[in-house]
Amino acid sequence: MSDYLLGIDVGGTFTDFVAYDKTSKAIDVWKNLTVPDDPTSGILQGISRLEDAAAIRNLRLGTTVATNAILERKGARIAYITTAGFKDIPFLQRGHREFHYDRTWSRAVPLVLRRHCFEIEERILSSGEILKPVSESSVRDVAQRIKELGDIEAIAVVLLFSYVNPVHEFRVRDLLHELLPEIPISISFEVLPKWKEYERASTTIADAYIKPILHRYLGDMETRFHAAGVLGKVALIKSNGGEMTPEAARQQPINLTISGPTGGVIAGRAVARELASDHVVTLDMGGTSTDCSTIINREISFTTDFEISFGLPIQIPMLDIRTIGAGGGSIAWIDKGGMLRVGPASAGALPGPACYGRGGDQATVTDANLILGRIDPSNFLGGAMPLNPAAAEAALAKLAEPLSMSIAQAAMAIVRIVNTNMVGALRTVLVERGLDPRDFALMAFGGAGPLHAAELITEAGIPRAIVPIHPGQFSALGFTLADARVDLERTVDMTSNRFDESRATEILQDLVQRGRAELEAQNYHDDIVVQSTLELRYLGQNYELEVPIDFEEFNAENRARLWQAFHQLHETRFGFKIDKEVIEMTTIKSAVIAITEKPEFMPLAANLRRTQKQNRKVYFADGAHDTPVYARADLRSGETLRGPALIEEAASVTVVAPGQRVAVANSGHLLITQEGSS
Q1: Where residue 79 sits, what CATH number does that domain have?
Q2: 591, β-bridge pairs
Q3: Would you say residue 503 has pLDDT above 80?
């Protein structure tokens, strides 16, 4: 009997599925078009492919519901409660600008209306000392005003210095639960117990803003899953790459902000370890966007420096992923200056690219790749969704004529522009952080990523590309490889010459204990790993470096090692260190991880024969080539092919440019390099 671990990635254009049968060790992958207005419907359509939904023992889902609710401003009507004198914090924001010389630019509009911001009488000092106790009468007055409004769906509570002493936030929450029992409440100590008032307020407001939306969505999803016979454990993938139960997601939905893109990075780390590739930059090009991240020393990069849109920070721990509007569905257009542009607008799943034949009439990147011969119109999604080349030509003709180009030239121009956009994203995560592209491999996946990988490594100066197995469903594969993970952090105010060992130990151990408790509540008791770090900086600096630690109790010996590790890291990052300078600790972080069972990458059979192939006219930068086409399923371990070449599979096509070669790794991953390179 089958026993499935099912990973599902709901994207803007397609919903991807990866089913790992724990009994047979087989992996099955497929795609469905996303249903934008009802993602659960699209998920259930995909699940129906399995003979018995009851065989799904574990289901892990990456969703864009939280992200879309914030981006599209479709969240809840919320109230904001704070310390007297501080209700304007969400509106003051920060002084930086997105565009320095654009006089029409304006700041991001907060997710809460000012007339729904309320103040209560209380005050805690930066030391944690209570200066003024909570005035319960002021809380009752605010609760009454909220009740009279009649349309408030959630409340965010952010009190001054609650990250040092949360007792007032806990009391206010308890009172509000008594007075307004039907309204969900987010408090900053549980969402982001960290300094910097605006960032803490913005993150807590965002959590409250999406809480009712996620509560309804998850409740409806679970009901429909049960009705469809899915009775196994259901988990959602968090922004930190770990999983959480639907109930935990209801309590802190902000953790789902970038749920979807994390899977590709998780799977990318597994492939990097298998191939012994120390440094990898991932490129996940789907139908709507491209996500880039780095894997350094075979470890994933994390961040809390994230903005859902400029000026609206969400500073929960998450995988460090940068996104741009460049996907297969990105629309090509001519600006007022007569220049060809591509994206960020996307044709999405409906109507989709012109070649989908679903009503779209604007040229997209997918249409361009089809015209260039890189996509077989009869083999899209393994033949399940034939494409319409005539519709793609008609859409491209609208651009080619005013640009005095042939249709093929216009298609090549679209591909080159979108490649340039993606090279810019790669430089953002590499060069702008002091990383040398020559030290990295580009791992390209998503339905469109392998189409562009060969040209991107040439333009970005990256020596080789990796196209992993199942690239079109790679993020969903990553969900099957995810562990259960809880990231917690808390701000402290200590320096190397003013350090309270017992207080720091108390906070560190509290974080670890809370993380373990959260995992136990999700039924994880074994194979628990703790990874803790400290944010440190020289006294007076404005940015921190994160230093890992391997202990849960501070003492004189490990403190000395800690300061030395910071000096060395600072010298590595910035080229200098100041040995006798005072070091400031700002934040203690702990990740508590439960290691889960994972699929295995099974080796391919040895290469016994040259793969059968056909030829097709394909356009490259230097013109058209008579190009051999291979079926990826027919390739064998150890096989090497020379470009130009196309390697087709159901959900993607890998392009190998002239002057390049591709080798097939043991588990089927494709390794693209320039001819003559090692």
Answers
A1: 3.40.1360
A2: 487, 531
A3: yes
User: Domain boundary residue among 172, 193, 214?
Assistant: 214
Please give the distance of CA 574 from its chain centroid, rounded to a whole number: 28
Q: Which whole number is the average pLDDT over 109-125?
A: 96
Residue 13 scores a pLDDT above 90 = no
Going by their DSSP bridges, the two strands 56-62 and 78-83 should be labelled as unpaired
CA–CA gap between residue 308 and residue 293 (Å, rounded): 16
Sheet holding 117-120, edge to edge: 117-120, 78-83, 154-158, 185-187
Q: Model confidence over 523-533: pLDDT tens digits? A: 888 899 999 99
> Is 57 within 8 Å of 22 (Cβ atoms)?
yes
Give the type of residue at 383. G
Q: Which helix (H) or strand (E) holds 499?
A: none
Average pLDDT of the residues in 589-604 = 88
Name the 3-class secondary structure at 340.
strand
Identify the H or E element spanning 393.
Answer: helix 389-400
Query: What confidence score (pLDDT) does residue 309 get?
Result: 80
Average pLDDT, the chain: 92
| Backbone φ and ψ of 313, nearest 5° | -70, 145
Amino acid, single-letter form, for residue 458: T
State residue 555 phi and psi, 5-degree precision. Answer: -150, 175
d(C-alpha 474, C-alpha 477), whole Å: 5
- Asked if residue 210 and residue 139 are part of one domain, the reply reads yes
Range of the domain at 579: 486-594
In this structure, is residue 29 part of a structural domain?
Answer: no
Q: Once rounded to an integer, what is the mean pLDDT over residues 176-197?
A: 95
Structural Rg of the chain based on CA atoms: 26
pLDDT greater than 80 at residue 426: yes
* Claim to verify: residue 590 and residue 621 sit in the same structural domain: no
The sign of the torsion formed by the CA atoms of 227, 232, 233, 238 equals negative
Where residue 201 falls (left for φ over 0; alpha for ψ -120 to 50; beta otherwise) is: alpha
* Bond from prior residue into 468 cis (ω within 30 degrees of 0): no
Distance CA 210, CA 255 (A): 11
Return the CATH number at 553.
3.30.1490
pLDDT given at position 272: 96
- Domain final position from 188, 214, 240: 214
3-state secondary structure of 204: helix
Verify that 656 and 577 share a domain, yes or no: no
What SS3 state is found at 559? Answer: helix
How confident is the model over 38-63, as pLDDT tens digits? 889 999 999 998 988 888 999 999 98
Element (H, E) at 603: none
- Domain annotation covers residue 174: yes
Residue 573 sits in the same domain as residue 626 = no
The predicted pLDDT at position 608 comes to 58
Give the pLDDT mean for 137-157: 97
pLDDT at position 1 is: 60
User: In a 3-state reduction of DSSP, which class is residue 407?
Assistant: helix
Count: domains in the chain: 3
Tokens coding 341: 């542009």
pLDDT band at 286 (very low <50, low <70, confident <90, very high): confident
Domain-embedded: residue 27? no
**Residue 609: pLDDT over 70:** no
Element spanning 202, H or E: helix 197-227
Are the C-beta atoms of residues 242 and 484 closer than 8 Å to each other?
yes
Regarding beta strands 330-334 and 299-300, do their DSSP bridges make them parallel or antiparallel, or are they unpaired? unpaired
pLDDT above 70 covers a percentage of the chain that reads: 98
| The 3-state secondary structure of 420-485, one letter per residue | HHHHHHHHHHCHHHCCCHHHCEEEEECCCHHHHHHHHHHHHCCCEEEECCCHHHHHHHHHHCCCEE
Task: For residues 565 and 635, state if they share a domain.
Answer: no
pLDDT of residue 469: 94
